[in-house]
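Retro notes, item 3 of 5
We never archived the inputs for the zinc ion complex last cycle. Fixing that now. Sequence and ligand:
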Amino acid sequence: MDQRTIMEELKVRISGADAVLVGLGLEWNGKDHREAVREAYEKLAGLLEGKDYFVLTVCTDGEIFSSSLDSEKITAPCGNQHWYQCPDACTKDIWEEGEAPGGVCPHCGKVLIPNTVEAEHYIEEGYLPSWGRYTTWLSRTLNRNLEVLELGAGFHGLELKLVRWPLEKTVFFNKKAHMYRINGAFSQISAELEGKAEPVAQNSVEFVRKLC
Ligand SMILES: [Zn+2]
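Structure as it came back at the time:
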């Protein structure tokens, strides 16, 4: 199938779906190609407009929260570089950029660090409310026509654990689910998902950017 046909089919599937689950892997980490990623988020927001959707991302650059996607429908379990926490986790408070005077913990005085999985004492309270919304949403998709877009999630530990495996499982157990796995290097589909999943061997940011 040529790329245009794949894109057209994908759009038809999205428009016919009751719910759309998007899982974003590290191809969406905006550090090296921020403009491309921003454009791709806007295309994704356009594609999902009016749909019942949820986005799960392992990226920590926080770029997605500045996009037109509904921040109530995003969960970022690996954290967000623009949120801050105490390095010792002496408090579970999370601050937004510039919110804590002097950039130090008001309780112990230590310099705050980004609230991401990189932190030695990662405070999960930053993402848990959105994670709760996500799991509730996901449980409601069980017998519905669910389209899954897995975009750029490879085999890095957290991509595998938070995106690839759970999404495969979701598609496997929901008889009405279908999935696209779009990935520049790792688009292969396991045998159990044959007929329910479409591999697209292309960088997912580039693919989404070209969606018109
Ligand atoms: Zn502290």
